[in-house]
Amino acid sequence: MDIATLTELETKAGVPQDAVVTHGELMRAFEAFRQTNDELDAKAAGDAVLQEKLARIDAALDAQTRRLDEIALKSARPALGAERARNNANTLEHKQAFEAYVRSGEAAGLRALEMKAMSIGSNADGGYLVPPEIETEIGQRLTAISPIRAIAGVRTISGNVYKKPFMTAGPAVGWVGETDARTQTASPTLDELSFPAMELYAMPAATATLLEDSAVNIDQWLAQEVEQVFAAQEGTAFVTGDGINKPKGFLSYTTVADASWTWGNIGYIASGAAGAFPASNPSDVLVDLIYAVKAGYRQNANFVMNRKTQSAIRKFKDTTGNYLWQPPAVAGGKATLLSFPVIEAEDMPDIAAGSLSIAFGDFRRGYLVVDRAGVSVLRDPYTAKPYVLFYTTKRVGGGVQDFEAIKLMKFAAS
């Protein structure tokens, strides 16, 4: 199917026109990338001009991919405001009281609502809970722009800690004949994983002019101001966080060679060369990584790596000359590697000696993000006059919940 046909189908399917145009540009850039790289491979001594051209096209591919992600985020933004609020009088009352608090500092309405709801922990010193629409938008937009949250399992809790039991040894089972005696089976041995929710904060600033402008949608302004900060902090913590006052990232757990894997550790496959892919058949180790994950997890698996690692892999071909990395088949889709989606997470390390630069697995089952319900805002007009600061907090935790579901590639000889 050619690019023109794909573009026509995407437009008919309701994909935004700017996404269709960007996707078409991405497909053309990838075609130029393939042709240039094939030319470069045909020249034994290499060609500096072609190498420079390939690097420019590679950068263009990355830029267009990011542009597609931004368009997808914009189109996924949920509807807010009075239209949804009209369907619920309490929601509308909360929204109006919150807007009065943000714009002018008038907290009486919010205080009355939270007293009516017998709320605790939300007051003039600790902040007030945002309306459900704003919390929903922050959550949905975080899912769209926080790479690990988008593929991980997510659970909302009302307390400070989520505890998940699991069996370290299951009950004894076996086969018996119809009239054979049944021996008593051993009871399962249980343990539990604990996921505390830590406080994440942002402090956007606004001018008095902005707050006095009735045309400004305060809901969207606040959500947009905090989303990037929250997403950046979350993204780092879910990958490399040490678990101290933040979630524990999957790269912070003990890693062992997959042949020696035990529960509580993350298994890895060695690339076969320190700080590099092997010189011959480099893609073979990617296949090894895929099949290190059990079949039940491979069905919903993703590759996770940063932009530089993806750039190196983009040049890999199979034995028939087809590229293993492929651009998104449709606007708003994900690039694929060996038919599995590629998630770009810039907090993954660059390829270096001993680095764990590629992860593969079912993150929905392997990594759990824990959100405590509620986002609170404290208005501060004093600290940074003439600006008004909004100390916005939410509680988030995270950690590995299934140590079999995720495998890593270590760039080492063994």
What does this structure look like?
The chain is α+β, with helices and mostly antiparallel strands and 414 residues long. It has a domain at 128-168 and 189-306 and 345-414. It has helices spanning 3-12, 17-42, 48-75, 82-85, 89-104, 108-116, 132-145, 147-151, 208-212, 218-240, 284-292, 295-298, 307-313, 363-366; strands at residues 128-129, 153-157, 161-169, 189-196, 198-202, 205-206, 255-257, 266-270, 302-305, 325-326, 336-337, 340-344, 356-361, 367-372, 376-380, 388-400, 406-410. Strands 7-8-17-13-9-12-11-10 form an 8-stranded mixed β-sheet. α5 (89-104) packs antiparallel against α6 (108-116). The two termini are 43 Å apart. The model is unreliable at 9-14, 78-87 and 118-124 (pLDDT under 50).
Give me a quick take on this structure.
The chain has 414 residues and is of the alpha+beta class. 40% of the residues lie in helices and 21% in strands.
